[in-house]
Design a protein that fits this description.
288 residues; alpha+beta; six-stranded mixed beta sheet; 18 strands; 24% strand
């Protein structure tokens, strides 16, 4: 029996595995895919957010702020690229200035260092290619960029070096409460663990439902697509550049990558409940 079974080998699951292996703890990572980092982790912008936007009274806000400060040391230890390039949230309308002030106030309550609102001239000096319609921006110097897939691989390798086990192609189909903990099953075998950590990404609600079928918890994923431009475009911006957020989200960002490319996106497509399930079946069929 394992002490802890972690479902999902993305950047969160592998990070937790690495941390737990610092202690006398038998850990197994269960991943339904054929490798680590093949889900959401492999397909995001690679931004390490400064952490000013999540509500200051929320756990997400507290963890964002603390996590950002840890990245430099973690990436150094694991030999993963990380650049603290800072971010700009740009205002293009007068009403956006209130949003910038609110973000700054929220970030300061969370202890985010160095936040300041800069004027048009300063924004343009920092980002010469930005639209001349910009009137101000919130500058967050602690924002950074990394390679989330490389980080997940490094976390997993370090966890395995420390004694963790990794089981690929293990799609959990049932979770049963036992006297000692839990029994997790796929089509071929059972795994027992005292504790289970659910890191299944957009399928975390499906996993939770195996324990509590009556739950109202439901993840409604939004799919986004990015343009990845050539390295000849990588110097067009120097920071992570956001528009001012609205009720629809943070909008389309522009960010250099640690490899020297330029990333633009994402768009936004809300998936219906059954689309997520169909995507899962198609991916599983492809992996077979």
């Amino acid at each position: 029996m394992y002490d802890v079974a972690i479902i999902g080998a993305g950047v969160i699951g592998t990070a937790i595995a690495r941390e737990l292996t610092k202690y006398k703890c038998e850990v197994v990572i269960l991943e339904r895919g054929h490798d680590v980092s093949i889900g959401t982790t492999k397909a995001n912008s690679g931004i390490v957010h400064a952490g000013y936007d999540a509500p200051c009274e929320s756990n997400k806000g507290r963890f964002n702020a603390k996590g950002n400060a840890m990245y430099e040391q973690i990436c150094k230890e694991l030999d993963v690229p990380f650049h603290r390039i800072g971010s700009l949230v740009c205002a293009f309308e007068e009403e956006d200035l209130t949003t910038l002030e609110n973000l700054k106030d929220n970030g300061e309550k969370l202890g985010i260092p160095g936040l300041k609102i800069i004027d048009q001239q300063t924004v343009r000096s920092m980002e010469p290619h930005i639209s001349d319609r910009v009137i101000a921006a919130l500058y967050a110097p602690t924002a950074g960029i990394t390679e989330p897939w490389a980080l997940a691989v490094a976390y997993a390798e370090n966890a395995l070096d420390n004694g963790a086990a990794l089981m690929l192609d293990f799609e959990v189909s049932n979770i049963e409460k036992t006297n000692m903990g839990y029994k997790l099953s796929n089509a071929d075998m059972d795994i027992e663990a005292k504790y289970v950590v659910n890191c299944a990404g957009v399928y975390a609600d499906d996993l939770y439902r195996l324990i509590d079928p009556s739950t109202s918890l439901e993840i409604r994923p939004i799919r986004g697509q990015y343009y990845l431009l050539d390295k000849s475009c990588g110097s067009w911006v120097n920071h992570v550049v956001f528009p001012c957020p609205s009720k629809l989200g943070k909008g389309t960002l522009v960010v250099p990558t640690v490899d020297g490319n330029l990333l633009v996106g994402p768009d936004s497509e809300v998936l219906e409940k059954n689309q997520k399930r169909r995507y899962k079946r198609k991916q599983s069929a492809f992996l077979m």
